[in-house]
């Protein structure tokens, strides 16, 4: 069953990969994936109604990992379909729009998810309460549940599988918004095209490079963290022939970003995962 669950999730990734290559726009891709994911959930519901689960572990795995991933992506793509289409030529307008979307998402996150004990249970990777959270019928109505739960199919939902799906969907949305902002960023550093053969150029924003430098320093990834920030930044300045200016001031500004503080690192994570998916 573990392999079956893995194959189900792989089928979703393959479908995303195929439709991304064929679709002409994000909206077209989102429409397709909404239809695909709805059908997949419907098929799984019928299969479970017919055969059930062989073991408790299978049931927990399905409602903790499989269904939330599919439902989370369904929520994500449905949200993309509903987003207002932006056709502004000026980057400032695009940036303002998606920056506002991140602020709204952050408020929604804090209001509905981060304040709950379950959110931190899931984020910390715990499993000690899985029997309560991810088995059918184990709902304690005395604790109070969101009103939506009374409208769902109790034979295909544990209540908390939807909570996990919400977390996953919001993670995807945040990553999507930040990816667009980073792709549209026009404040690139530049190196003369006549640079000698073999030199490198940094083609993203200066803030992105500063964020990367601080991350490497914080993680102790260069010389076990013994290299100071000043020397590390100088190394990158010489490597890419850029002037980063006052990196400490830039880093201070990052700490007060609305929404995701490490936007470039999240963008890197998303880009790498998409690259891995293309290699499947």
UniProtKB/TrEMBL annotation:
It holds the Pfam family RteC. InterPro entries: Tet_reg_excision_RteC (IPR018534). This is RteC protein. It comes from Chryseobacterium kwangjuense. The lineage of its organism: Bacteria, Pseudomonadati, Bacteroidota, Flavobacteriia, Flavobacteriales.
């Amino acid at each position: 069953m573990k392999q079956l669950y893995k194959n189900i999730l792989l089928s979703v990734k393959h479908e995303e990969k195929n439709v991304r290559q064929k679709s002409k726009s994000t909206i077209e891709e989102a429409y397709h994936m909404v239809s695909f994911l709805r059908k997949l959930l419907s098929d799984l519901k019928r299969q479970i109604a017919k055969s059930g689960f062989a073991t408790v572990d299978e049931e927990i795995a399905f409602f903790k990992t499989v269904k939330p991933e599919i439902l989370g992506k369904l929520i994500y793509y449905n949200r993309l379909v509903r987003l207002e289409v932006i056709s502004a030529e000026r980057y400032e307008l695009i940036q303002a729009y998606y920056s506002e979307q991140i602020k709204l998402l952050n408020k929604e996150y804090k209001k509905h998810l981060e304040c709950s004990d379950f959110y931190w249970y899931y984020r910390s990777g715990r499993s000690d309460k899985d029997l309560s959270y991810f088995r059918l019928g184990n709902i304690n109505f005395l604790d109070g549940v969101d009103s939506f739960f009374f409208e769902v199919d109790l034979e295909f939902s544990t209540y908390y599988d939807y909570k996990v799906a919400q977390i996953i969907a919001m993670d995807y949305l945040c990553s999507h918004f930040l990816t667009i902002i980073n792709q549209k960023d026009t404040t690139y550093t530049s190196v003369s095209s006549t640079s000698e053969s073999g030199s490198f150029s940094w083609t993203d924003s200066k803030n992105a490079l500063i964020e990367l430098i601080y991350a490497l320093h914080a993680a102790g990834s260069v010389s076990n963290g013994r290299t100071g920030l000043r020397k590390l930044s100088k190394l990158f300045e010489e490597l890419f022939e850029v002037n980063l200016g006052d990196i400490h001031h830039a880093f201070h500004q990052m700490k007060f970003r609305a929404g995701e503080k490490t936007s470039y690192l999240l963008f890197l994570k998303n880009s790498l995962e998409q690259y891995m998916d293309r290699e499947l």
